[in-house]
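Researcher: Let's run the pair from yesterday's discussion. Sequence first, then tokens, for each.
Model: Starting with the first of the pair.
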Amino acid sequence: MLEASNNKELPEIPSKRYFTIGEVSELCIVKPHVLRYWEQEFPTLSPVKRRGNRRYYQRHDVVLIREIRSLLYEQGYTIGGARQKLSHHSDNNEAKQQGFEDLRDELEDLLRLLNHNP
């Protein structure tokens, strides 16, 4: 995903826990109404909503928005194409995670075997 170091035109993401829609708009150079629209189009983009339906984005949301922005504005994807690309990226991450969990389980089994055999 895009970090500020990979994209020189975007400002660095401050180390904060939550960002308002205005802050995210400035960090990603995208208008607030576009961010609200993208929330409808990209299911993985779902900021926390608090008092009066105010949106609070977390760092991973900002990184995702930058990735969406890159796909749409720089790489020329359509919304549907960007959604599909992000979906494949998500599927690959889930498969990797499952592989790591399987490997961890196997290593734990080996460790138990080694500990029980003198």
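Model: Moving on to the second of the pair.
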Amino acid sequence: MLASHNLVETEFKEILFEKRPCLDHSGNAVPGLYNAWIILNNPQQYNSYTTEAVKEVILAMRAASNDRTVVAVVFTAVGDKAFCTGGNTKEYAEYYASNPQEYKQYMRLFNDMVSSILMNDKPVVNRVNGMRIGGGQEIGMACDFSIAQDLSRFGQAGPKHGSAPDGGSTDFLPLFVGIENSMFSCTVCDPWSAHEALRYGLLTEIVPALKLNGEFIPNPMVHVDKWVNERGDIIYGKSKSGEELVKAKETLKASVVDLSALDEATEKICTKLMYLMPNCLSKTINSLRKHKLEHWDKNKESNRDWLALNMMTEAKAGFRAFNDGPKGQREVDFVKLRQMLAQGHEWNDDLIRAISPQFQAE
């Protein structure tokens, strides 16, 4: 009888945990070897993670890491709209806002989730089935490989909604895309298309997800090839506009989403990983992960402290505006906020009421 090294045995309720047979180069199932699929299961809220889901991801990563029959881990989500958009804003707004002591404990769990990816004994593949935004971007970057469908978008949301991308993006993103691109993404929060993300070095591979008349086509909403605008700038993966955008939307409407190419590409990289010496593979991955861990381990605890205290001010306002604001108006009045702070107004409920969209109709 082999010893179990899991801390606890668990029944997964918030996420899905599946062991799928490894495939050989001919596509045949390999007896006794599996890939562990850890699947976020909250598509109604764009696969944002609740506190309970975070706990389950940690336990699932640990279980996959310890399982002797598992070759690789696939981290993904249900549906085709989003891999993950970060923490559950309803939970943030209704429970953690104004409770920094509680949010600090939550961030201990979040940090452990990121670390459970970075310290997994198996290679972790992020199957990006849709948007990878905010904390979703951060847990995605903690993975070793990212295979994305080309309708996906990538980016941050923190400064727009009262937080800072200190759950991994400020540590990891410069390693992928450099300081300038990281600065723009983490502050301005404009999302990148999958094609831009691939070009910047954020992804391993992208595959088409739209079928038109039974054939895969690239994302019609972006310029897939190099394109020179009127100023001579080379654009790649930028969103279309004007008449091009109208036609692109028509193409999108006439097409259907099919993630079979994403599944095939995911299985393909898992197969390649199977045909490697397991200990040499593990050592190589861990040596490369050190570049992420160097920054992550240095900053994660001080970031946790700051993010908790921020729940008393900007996060309290930002998350409640996003959760409670009317459709199309989920951000605070940034100009009024700056004006009030410039006049020396203290952070209190009067300030939050003055800048929050949910109170403006009163």
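Researcher: Give me one sentence on the second I can quote.
Model: The two ends are 67 Å apart (CA to CA).
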